[in-house]
Design brief:
Blueprint (H helix, E strand, L loop, with lengths): L4 E3 L3 H8 L1 E3 L8 E4 L4 E8 L2 E9 L17 E3 L7 H4 L6 E6 L1 E8 L2 E9 L5 E11 L5 E10 L9 E2 L33 E4 L1
Parallel strand pairs: 2-5, 5-11, 6-11
Antiparallel strand pairs: 1-3, 1-8, 4-5, 7-10, 8-9, 9-13, 10-11, 11-12
């Protein structure tokens, strides 16, 4: 299970990187230990372009009776997205990305585990892939929740790892004189060792 990441870049750099505007009510705070059940910065596509807002990490499906299930649904396996009822209906229209500058994974060394922070080789901000849904409680109150997609281990990380959305996979379409800027048609990529490094 992948359950910690960092997002500490200045707000203006995040906005520029993802060509996003700020959603109403969003307040950005750098976070060195973003964790499940916290509100995390997210980039969501809208009719007015990319919007930077906050969504609670831990997906609560529309059928859930209460929001406690969110703590058990912080990750969604890429290999079974189309099989799980909670996720397959979200793939086509409820995608989003999470801006980050690093995440934490365990590296096995013989019988021990070493906690590693995974970052880009050039220390740049990158993105994680996810799905979101708006859940409504019995009183009609709405709650935006999300899950982060994981994939199989690779040569660098021996456990399940976050999906990294590569810069070229954004499917970005830009019009110099218009507002149509799309980044949400992401492809799913596992972490590529030639782009990332790990730090203890």
């Amino acid at each position: 299970m992948c359950g910690r990441f960092t997002i500490t870049d200045p707000l203006d750099e995040i906005i520029e990187r993802f060509m996003a505007s700020i959603a109403d009510g969003f307040e950005y705070r750098p976070n060195y230990n973003a964790a499940p059940m916290q509100y995390i910065p997210t980039i969501i596509d809208s009719k007015n372009g990319n919007r930077l807002g906050a969504v609670r990490w831990g997906l609560v499906p529309s059928w859930a009776k209460d929001d406690k299930i969110g703590n058990k649904m912080i990750n969604a396996r890429a290999e079974t997205l189309t099989e799980k009822t909670s996720f397959k209906r979200l793939i086509s229209s409820k995608r989003y990305i999470i801006p980050t500058n690093g995440f934490y994974e365990w590296k096995r060394e013989s019988s021990n585990k070493q906690l590693m922070r995974i970052i880009m080789k050039d220390d740049s901000i990158f993105s994680l892939a996810g799905l979101y849904v708006i859940w409504t409680d019995p009183d009609g109150k709405k709650l935006s929740t999300c899950t982060i997609i994981t994939t199989e281990p690779n040569s660098l990380m021996q456990d399940k790892t976050f999906i990294i959305v590569c810069r070229l996979s954004f499917g970005m379409k830009m019009k110099q004189n218009g507002l149509k800027r799309r980044i949400m048609k992401f492809s799913l990529y596992s972490a590529c060792s030639n782009h990332i490094k790990h730090l203890k």
